[in-house]
Write a structure and sequence with these properties.
The protein is α/β, with parallel strands linked by helices and 351 residues long. The chain is 52% helix and 15% strand. The chain folds into two domains: 144 residues, Rossmann fold (3-Layer(aba) Sandwich), CATH 3.40.50.1970; 189 residues, Dehydroquinate synthase-like, alpha domain (Up-down Bundle), CATH 1.20.1090. Strands 1-8-5-4-2-3 form a six-stranded parallel sheet, sandwiched between helices. Helix 3 crosses helix 4.
Length: 351
């Protein structure tokens, strides 16, 4: 008996280039979307929204409705779905991760094509088969559909704050420890590993590491790498190629921290720590962070050591049945020692 082929959904429309936003209407028209609804971040710079409006209008694409989004909230995604005009054949998400997740989930509820137009590259959520939304005040990752299209204007993303770029670098680096955790789960519990998904995830990181520079080409490489990681998740039907114990630590911080930071900043620091627990890839991660100035940015606004130690205690309980290096032993004392004495992390934590 032979295994049945797996059907996966991947974006058929992909543009990662300078000036891509100015052709948003052209791309929609080519796909047959003469009318769209747009979910836009409430804090997106006015010039970006105006550019999108102008591009759609110039190509004869009508915006049936604009929805402003301030929070990644399930209720708002539901309300957008309910209020969508009947003639809308596609939804565009424009802005940061919150608006993109809301737009993605509203499109999923309506079984409509979704086009992601991120204005920064702070994580891989713009092209993933899930949406991170608050449900009754609790953040949850909900199943959704992959985008029909991904449009990344490298000019726009390059103009975003550097912290968002560094957050994207941190989230990308996490793929190294995530894949290692996945393989550890296979050897310990027998959890199946999709070899192609792991190869794709690893390749995306090393593609970016070859040129980790914040310029037009660097933005193109980071955007491409994060997008392909979303596809790796779609291939295997789970977050395993992109998310491991480093994400559990970040999720724990989101719950207990007095001031949670950008997802990718938390994940990036946790990735270095986890790499030491795993006994691999530490030098690669350190070199990447040094080249990008990642750790220097953390030192400018250090984390609370006490919160991170508490997060290390809580992390293994975040996701039941999700085996990682944190499941293999009690790692709290090892992490405490790193926070206090690892030279690479010097200055990254308050006393």
């Amino acid at each position: 008996m032979t295994a049945s082929p797996t059907t996966i959904a991947i974006p058929g429309l992909v543009r990662i280039k300078s000036g891509a936003l100015e052709k948003l209407g052209v791309y929609c028209g080519r796909c047959g979307f003469g009318t769209v609804a747009v979910v836009v971040s409430s804090d997106v710079p006015s010039g970006i929204r105006e550019s999108a409006e102008k591009a759609l209008m110039a190509a004869g694409v009508r915006v049936a409705q604009w929805f402003n989004c301030a929070e990644a909230d399930f209720e708002q995604a539901r309300d957008i779905f309910v209020s969508l005009p009947g003639e809308v054949p596609a939804i565009i998400g424009l802005g940061g991760g919150r608006a993109l997740d809301v737009a993605k989930y509203a499109a999923f509820l309506g079984r409509l094509p979704y086009i992601a137009v991120p204005t920064s590259l702070s994580n891989d959520g713009f092209c993933s088969p899930g949406a991170s939304l608050s449900v009754a005040g609790c953040k949850r990752s909900l199943p959704a559909a992959m985008p029909f299209g991904v449009i990344i204007d490298t000019d726009v993303c390059l103009a975003a704050p550097e912290q968002l770029w560094l957050s994207g670098v941190g989230d990308l680096a996490a793929k190294l420890t995530a894949v290692r955790d996945w393989k550890l789960a296979f050897h310990t519990t027998g959890e199946p590993v999709n070899d192609f998904a792991t190869l794709l995830s690893d390749a995306t990181v090393f593609q970016f590491i070859s040129r980790p520079v914040r310029d037009q080409e660097g933005v193109r490489l980071l955007g491409t790498s994060l997008m392909l990681n979303g596809i790796a998740m779609e291939i295997c039907g789970s977050s395993r190629p992109a998310s491991g114990s480093e994400h559990l630590i970040s999720h724990a911080l989101d719950r207990i921290s007095a001031r949670p930071r950008l997802h990718g900043l938390q994940v990036g620091v946790a990735t270095y720590i986890v790499s030491r627990l795993q006994g691999g890839q530490t030098d690669t991660i350190r070199s990447l962070f040094e080249a990008c100035g990642f750790l220097e940015a953390i030192r400018n606004d250090p984390f609370s050591r006490a919160e991170w130690i508490e997060a290390a205690r809580l992390a293994p309980t975040i996701k039941k049945g999700f085996y990682t290096v944190l499941s293999s032993r009690d790692c709290v004392d090892e992490i405490r020692s790193m926070l206090e004495g690892d030279a690479v992390l010097a200055g990254c934590f308050t006393a």
